Inverse folding.
């Protein structure tokens, strides 16, 4: 697992992809930070982090698109799958490599609360819950992107599937408003955005934490299944 | 070492591999020969656990590939048709990664790495990016990858494809040398390769085994007549007339004109008649000296064509 993790992580920084994405992400989130500062909004960090989650919709699919798709295209998948490592280990390694890139990207944004702490007196507990929400949210997004990448050997297609999947996940709560009763409950329960907003408001609900981790785990599991199913395919 | 029984792989209605069985002994180099699309790569992919079979069993060193895939994979080094290389890594980084992936202990790997790199002669390119290497070197890096962890079994899918003649000879020598410590299955559609390297040959066609034997036995088994190449000084038409009268000669053809009135001929004759003596006497009488006479065994190439075409006729 660590072999794959290390290799994939390095490869993101060997190509421009990680730098470009982190740069773009920082540029846009700094822009949000700056505008909230000038508007004089309170709870600046949770507002910025909330906007950052929207940026992830575009950034994550581009980050994850090559993870599995490239291995298939280059034939290196054969190397991984015929090695004594288990498929779960390989997929976990790939997921963690992506997640590390995501965490580094998130790490850069910690500059905002640091600036606020130096020049003011922000609510540190709220900052903590916002960031906890963000990294959990990121885990789900990365897992969805990874899953999308396992479906195809074309990176562009992987990015598009990833984006559509994330967009569906992001907007599921709007779907809820079309229904009432049981379906309404199901869709609101599924709504990752609602749970995310709780974190932004300083509410750390343990069921939400478990929900997010489970959702990420489900997509990682599905990725493993896709890889395995291909082995058994008859056509 | 390797036992394959009733292996079948179906893709929809097409049988890519159709009920093949064979076994490979320890230390043997087995050639896997067949035209494109015969099912060579499919069989190898199943052997290495990359894809699954529809039915049939495979055992490597007594471990079943379905029941105990990890044990089987530990014992196999695989070089697929397209070497599985990460182009954005240096040779060094790549081999280290493969060693970690195959869980080779770090201590052992340090000494093993040096040996492998020297064996396949890539020490001097170890710090270069793989994408900048030539096809021949990429192939060697792929081979080095297969050797990591000194697996008992090496499976090499067309290891010499795309190399220049000098490299081909080197790689063949290398494979031959590796055969001393490893059991090797090697696929190819280049026939001289098989006779140069392999102890035994499996000829596969349309997913089925057409023949299994040593290259020599295959040659003997299949030739119903003996063939000679003869160079004779004398006008072509007269020599032709003289020779075709001889009892036992079935076929005569000019293969090469050396100079005026000096030609090489290919002669095919019945196996149980020795035509060499009457040929000599007859030509001596006419005053056309034999300058060269050598016997031609059926080359593997011809055996291959013969086997794969008879198979086809059976199917029709």
């Amino acid at each position: 697992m660590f072999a794959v993790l290390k290799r994939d992580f390095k490869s993101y920084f060997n190509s421009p992809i990680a730098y470009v994405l982190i740069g773009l992400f920082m540029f846009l989130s700094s822009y949000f930070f700056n505008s909230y500062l000038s508007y004089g909004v309170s709870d600046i960090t949770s507002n910025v982090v909330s906007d950052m989650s929207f940026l992830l919709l575009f950034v994550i699919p581009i980050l994850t698109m090559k993870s599995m798709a490239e291995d298939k295209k280059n034939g290196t998948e054969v190397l991984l799958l015929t090695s004594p490592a288990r498929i779960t280990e390989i997929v976990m390694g790939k997921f963690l490599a992506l997640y590390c890139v995501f965490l580094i990207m998130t790490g850069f944004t910690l500059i905002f609360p640091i600036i606020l702490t130096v020049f003011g007196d922000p609510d540190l507990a709220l900052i903590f819950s916002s960031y906890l929400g963000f990294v959990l949210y990121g885990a789900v997004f990365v897992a969805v992107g990874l899953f999308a990448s396992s479906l195809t050997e074309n990176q562009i297609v992987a990015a598009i599937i990833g984006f559509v999947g994330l967009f569906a996940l992001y907007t599921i709560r709007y779907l809820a408003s079309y229904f009432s009763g049981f379906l309404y409950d199901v869709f609101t329960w599924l709504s990752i955005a609602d749970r995310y907003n709780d974190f932004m408001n300083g509410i750390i609900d343990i069921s939400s934490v478990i929900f997010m981790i489970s959702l990420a785990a489900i997509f990682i599991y599905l990725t493993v299944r896709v890889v395995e199913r291909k082995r058994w395919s008859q056509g | 070492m390797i036992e394959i029984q009733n292996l079948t792989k179906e893709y929809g209605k097409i049988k890519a591999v159709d009920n093949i069985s064979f076994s490979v002994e320890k230390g043997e180099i087995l050639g896997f020969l067949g035209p494109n699309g015969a099912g060579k790569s499919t069989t190898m992919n199943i052997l290495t656990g990359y894809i699954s079979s529809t039915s049939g069993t495979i055992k490597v060193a007594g471990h079943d590939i379905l029941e105990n895939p990890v044990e089987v994979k530990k014992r196999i080094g695989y070089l697929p048709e397209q070497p599985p290389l990460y182009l954005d890594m240096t040779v060094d980084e790549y081999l280290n990664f493969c060693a970690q992936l195959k869980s080779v202990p770090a201590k052992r790997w340090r000494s093993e790495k040096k040996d492998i790199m020297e064996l396949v002669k890539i020490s001097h390119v170890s710090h270069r990016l793989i994408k900048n290497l030539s096809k021949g070197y990429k192939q060697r890096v792929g081979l080095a990858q297969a050797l990591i962890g000194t697996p008992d079994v090496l499976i090499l899918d067309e290891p010499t494809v795309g190399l220049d003649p000098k490299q081909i000879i080197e790689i063949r020598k290398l494979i031959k040398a590796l055969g001393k410590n490893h059991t090797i299955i090697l696929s190819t559609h280049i026939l001289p390769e098989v006779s140069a390297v392999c102890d035994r040959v499996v000829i596969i066609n349309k997913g089925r085994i057409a023949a299994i034997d040593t290259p020599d036995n295959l040659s003997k088994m299949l030739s119903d007549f003996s063939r000679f190449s003869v160079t004779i000084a004398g006008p072509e038409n007269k020599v032709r007339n003289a020779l075709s009268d001889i009892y036992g000669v079935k076929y005569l053809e000019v293969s090469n004109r050396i100079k005026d009135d000096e030609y090489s001929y290919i002669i095919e004759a019945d196996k149980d008649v020795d035509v060499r003596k009457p040929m000599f006497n007859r030509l001596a009488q006419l005053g056309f000296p034999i300058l060269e006479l050598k016997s031609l065994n059926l080359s593997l190439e011809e055996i291959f064509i013969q086997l794969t075409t008879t198979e086809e006729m059976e199917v029709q």
